[in-house]
Specification:
Layout: H1 15-23, H2 31-41, E1 46-49, H3 56-69, E2 79-84, H4 88-101, E3 109-112, H5 119-126, E4 129-134, H6 136-144, E5 155-158, H7 161-166, H8 170-179, E6 185-190, H9 195-202, E7 209-212, E8 223-229, H10 235-246, E9 251-254, H11 258-270, E10 275-278, H12 284-296, E11 301-304, H13 306-309, E12 319-322, H14 329-336, E13 346-352, H15 357-367, H16 428-438
Parallel strand pairs: 1-6, 1-7, 2-4, 2-5, 3-4, 5-6, 8-13, 9-11, 9-12, 10-11, 12-13
The chain binds adenosine monophosphate.
Length: about 450
């Protein structure tokens, strides 16, 4: 379908919704919106390959609101549209969008996730919600306690389905599908379409409209990418130097491990740079606070692990830093998707030590190009990073190694989910299970990070 010429008012949305979109300052619908909005409005199932940063949330939210505004409001405990997301942050983010886009409509919305008290959520659900955004574990808990009725459910959205499977939510998703009425519209959004996702889709969507907006694993064109070869122990000092030289006021920094994230925050603070960490060992309160402080500009640097960062949506985030390269190449694409969102330009830099050469080459193979290198004299590495040679063989997506057939036991579904995980089962559990799932060796701690000292190449 050609999508060049469509404006928001040509997509079949009513003036109340168009006004809310205008309020957000959006001029033109993004490619996913141009395709998804009319498709969802037809009432058909939709399967969309779209990463965060493409405007996918509005792509499904706007038409859902349009459809819901034409029907009967939700009664007590009823839910008419259910949006399931992998992480608490993404749930909060999507709910925030739903609220903004429905500002001029008589529709109610609510959000539920683990890590916070369940009672206030139960109270809110008593009034019913036309749109409910939820993480899987808490949704099932609330349903088990009779707080939600799905008898009038019209639409189900699985958002970032690939990440949900990575995080071991397959069993929860299957349970959720069983308690929903059979007649409903299903929307499946996923950054990648692995065999696992295809297997899930088979039992979920019926004759779907298929949409794909970015070729899988291509990096946003508006993101400038660069790497700084550096010795591992010099990474913290190099980061401080880059922050200061470039006067970065807001940067999202990715760390491979939770401890690494904490250590880096301490180092930045010692160097008078405000920072906070966001990862699965942090309480929900601490995560929410860190994100709010980052958004308000109170802290300059947010250090995050991959899982925790999923769902962070900060308008026009200018700078992303890979303090460590991710073990799984696709995560690089997700990470740098945090900047240059919906047409805005952004920068992504990676600090790469010689022991990360394999990860770098794998990323370059995935994105199909060699990333430009820059050296800072003081930080020139003693241990040289081997030169890149682009491997042009097609990249085989790894990720879940498991089931070809639906119903077969899935690896990602075997993540421990014992009783007593209680409040942590939504977000925190995923971080642990994903690590396990990818079965890579934990990196060695790089030693205590002291206050910054200029690097000395010859030392
Ligand atoms: P998403 O991919 O849904 O996470 O959205 C990424 C970002 O793009 C969010 O900050 C949205 O507010 C923003 N956005 C969504 N649609 C548009 C649009 N049509 N024009 C400009 N920005 C948009």
């Amino acid at each position: 379908m050609s999508t060049d010429t469509l404006n928001f008012d040509q997509l079949g949305l009513s003036p109340a919704i168009l006004d809310a979109v205008k309020e957000q300052g959006y001029d033109t619908p993004s490619p996913i919106q141009q395709q998804a909005i009319p498709a969802v409005l037809t009432g058909k199932d939709v399967m969309a390959a779209a990463q965060t940063g493409t405007g996918k949330t509005a792509g499904f939210t706007l038409p859902i609101l349009e459809l819901l505004s034409q029907g009967q409001r939700a009664n007590n405990n009823q839910v008419r549209a259910l949006i399931v997301t992998p992480t608490r942050e993404l749930a909060a983010q999507v709910a925030d969008n739903v609220e903004k886009y429905s500002a001029n409509l008589k529709l109610s919305s609510s959000v539920v996730f683990g890590g916070v008290k369940i009672n206030p959520q139960m109270m809110r659900l008593r009034r019913g919600a036309d749109v409910l955004v939820a993480t899987p574990g808490r949704l099932l808990d609330l349903y088990g306690q009779g707080a939600i009725k799905f008898d009038t459910l019209e639409v189900l959205v699985l958002d970032e389905a690939d990440r949900m499977l990575d995080m071991g939510f397959i069993h929860d998703i299957k349970k959720i599908l069983k308690i929903l009425p059979a007649k409903r519209q299903n929307l499946l959004f996923s950054a990648t379409f692995s065999d696992d996702i295809k297997a899930l889709a088979k039992g979920l969507v019926n004759n779907p409209v298929e949409i794909s907006v970015t070729p899988p694993n291509s990096t946003a064109k508006t993101v400038k990418q660069k790497i700084y070869p550096v010795d591992k122990k010099q990474k913290p000092a190099l980061l401080v130097r880059l922050i200061e030289d470039n006067n970065w006021q807001q940067a999202l920094v990715f760390s491979k491990t939770k401890h690494g994230a904490n250590r880096l925050v301490r180092y930045l603070e010692e160097n008078n740079i405000t920072a906070a960490a966001i990862h699965g060992n942090k309480s929900q309160g601490a995560r929410t606070r860190a994100l709010a402080d980052f958004k308000s500009g109170e802290i300059r640097i947010l250090v995050a692990t991959d899982i925790a960062a999923r769902g962070i949506d900060i308008d026009q985030l200018p700078q992303v830093v890979n303090f460590d390269l991710p073990k799984v190449a696709e995560d690089y694409v997700h990470r740098i998707g945090r900047t240059g969102r919906a047409g805005a330009s952004g920068n992504a830099v990676s600090l790469v030590s010689h022991d990360e050469a394999k990860e770098l080459f794998s990323i370059e193979r995935l994105i199909g190009k060699i990333i430009e290198r820059e050296y800072l004299v003081e930080f020139d590495p003693v241990n040289r990073l081997p030169e890149s040679v682009l491997d042009t063989r097609p990249f085989k997506l790894k990720k879940p190694k498991k089931p070809k057939k639906p119903g077969q036991k899935s690896h990602s579904g075997t993540a421990p989910r014992g009783k007593g995980q209680g409040e942590h089962k939504d977000g925190n559990r995923g971080e642990g299970s994903q690590k396990k799932h990818r079965a890579h060796k934990p990196s060695k701690p790089s030693g205590p990070w002291k206050k910054r000292k200029p690097a000395n190449k010859s030392s």
